[in-house]
Amino acid sequence: MAKAGATAEAGSAGAKGALHRYRSTTCGGLRASDIGGTARLSGWVHRVRDHGGVLFIDLRDHYGITQVVADPDSAAFKTAETVRSEWVIRVDGKVRQRPEGTTNADLATGEIEVYATEIEVLSAAKELPVPVFGEPDYPEDLRLTYRFLDLRRETLHGIIMKRLAITRYIREAMHDAGFNEFPTPILTASSPEGARDFLVPSRIHAGKFYALPQAPQQYKQLLMVSGFDRYFQIAPCFRDEDGRADRSPGEFYQLDLEMSFVTQDDVFAALEPVLNGVFQEFGEGKQVTPAPFPRIAYDDAMLKYGSDKPDLRNPLLIVDVTEAFRGSGFGLFAKSIESGAVVRAIKAPGAGPKPRSFFDKLNEWARSEGAGGLGYVQFEADGAKGPIAKNLDAARLEQIKSATGANAGDAVFFVCAKPAEAATFAGKTRTRLGQELDLIEKGAFKLCWIVDFPMFEFNPDTKKIEFSHNPFSMPQGGLEALTTKDPLTIKAFQYDIVCNGVELSSGAIRNHLPDVMVKAFEICGYTRQDVEERFAGLFNAFQFGAPPHGGSAPGIDRIVMLLADEPNIREVVAFPMNQQAQDLLMGAPAEVAPERLKELHIRLHLPPPKKPAGEG
Predict the structure, then answer these.
(1) Which residue in 3, 99, 428, 486 has its CB near the most CB atoms, within 10 A?
(2) How confident is the model at residue 613 (pLDDT cuts 50, 70, 90)?
């Protein structure tokens, strides 16, 4: 169990000197200095071992484990024979030194044991649906159904305690940096944050709904307009979206912060020490990017890394080699370029001499990703080889070699597609090659800022221009840019912070000018009336003097995932939903009684039940 606080005393109740009803110390509190004394412990039976008639009980609580011994001469032996795993018991006994050769260096209490003189069963346990002892791999839904048992396991218990320590560190660091912690409302109005809201029907106002906040965005901006200057909150956020390995389907927590009279540089300078500090403090000696963190423009990130969440532990870079193939003898690429495609290349150091099976395996992977394959050239001392090389003249091959920095013994892989598709698949290829060639730096947290995001993007499904990031951001160039430029060319003062390929947060310098706000939303199809009605609080506040302000919101869950080295977000949350947005422990979501629906003015219109497989 968690070692922190292992020596903490349980405290005493009643008169001074009276023995506490349940414990005189914790299961992690006894040391060699206690030998010869007596102790009272309470906890869970971790496991029972029978060594030739002598019973050894590992007794566990939040603080640690103590070995309890009962032999046939002990008055507690009869009760000790009845206890089973996860029973809760109280033990009174004598603290003694473990016999020579039986000490356990892995336990803080490993030098001692407690010889039981009395055992009281406080609570018996049924047969366990999931074991607590050890770290067995059980189905996730079963673990979530019995999460209270799952949380007793050492690894998960330790992760949750680490999460609390990380949160406490962040909170204290923000206070030390001059930020003030404000709570913001949970019942609020719907906002276009890019995901679905969770809606809450109003009993008093028939047909109207509150929304749970996707983020405290408008409220934290209103706090700046109110003159509080530096706000932060470990904020719960709610989004009705599908679950992923790195995203909970219902709620998550973020370090939400906002600052007045600041530029983008000021936000970075305030947040970098906090993030660097938390990774230093809990990173177990791993290398952490020092401040100031590298800044990478969005367009450069998409070109060089094929992602706006680049993993900088991977040294491979993507380069554009479209011109080397334009009008070339390699017809497949040359014809695609005429239709608007581009060619991206990734150097694979030392992969030139790899056997054919290495390249075939990557081709199979590319097809599994929906691509036609993965073209390549092998550069060797006696020239370039491979199907593509045969169709390129020496000058074009030299152009590719120069652009990618390839040398003899390297291979170069190619992706040919329309720009957006090429960037995405080249990014996946870069990651795959980094893994296959074991190039990903180990023992490091590499942080960077992605800056200069596009203000708008075109949605091919709706055929409309939409906000690409945060609708409340300040466009670079202000109102003039919004009125004179192609919207799809406008950049915003928006930024993300990324660590090891994981987006930790998004943020922006906010738009605090009413006319700019109206024009930005107008480009996305909203009228002035829409803005005045949907964002009444914020829009109205901007009429009465708003300071320039900006902020960010690093995700607590993702920070803990990285520091706990857990790829699944449900392993760092005490009571998570499953991927189908169900709380299997509490049975949510659940049906509601008809009278309650009537009280809320709601009539259900359910989809028809799905027919069993095989029925027409």
Answers:
(1) 428
(2) low
Is 3's pLDDT higher than 80?
Answer: no
Give ∠ CA 503-508-511 in degrees, rounded to 5.
Answer: 155
| Segment 570-575 long-range contacts (CB within 8 Å, at least 24 positions apart) | 570/140, 570/144, 570/248, 571/156, 571/159, 572/159, 572/160, 572/163, 573/248, 574/147, 574/151, 574/160, 575/147
**Distance separating alpha carbons of residues 558 and 254, to the nearest angstrom:** 9
Q: List for the chain the helix, strand, coil content (%; round to 5).
A: 30, 25, 45
Distances (CA, A) of 21 to 9, 13, 298: 14, 8, 62
CB neighbourhood size of 515 (10 A)? 14
Element spanning 57, H or E = strand 54-61
- From the number of C-beta atoms within 10 Å of its C-beta (0-12, 13-18, 19+), residue 70 rates as buried
**Among candidates 572, 500, 506, 470, which has minimal Cα distance to 248?**
572
Entry field: residues in the chain: 616
Say if residues 250 and 213 touch (Cβ distance below 8 Å): no
CA gap 82, 283 in Å, rounded? 44
Q: What tokens appear for 382 in the block?
A: 């006696």
* CA end-to-end span of the chain: 54
127's tokens: 């047969």
Which of the pair, 610 or 581, is modelled with greater confidence?
A: 581
Helix (H, G, I), strand (E, B) or coil at 499: strand
Give CA–CA dist 322/341, Å, rounded. 8
Q: Which amino acid is at 316?
A: L
Residue pLDDT, tens place only, 23-40: 999 999 999 999 999 999
SS3 for 507-522 is EEEECCCHHHHHHHHH
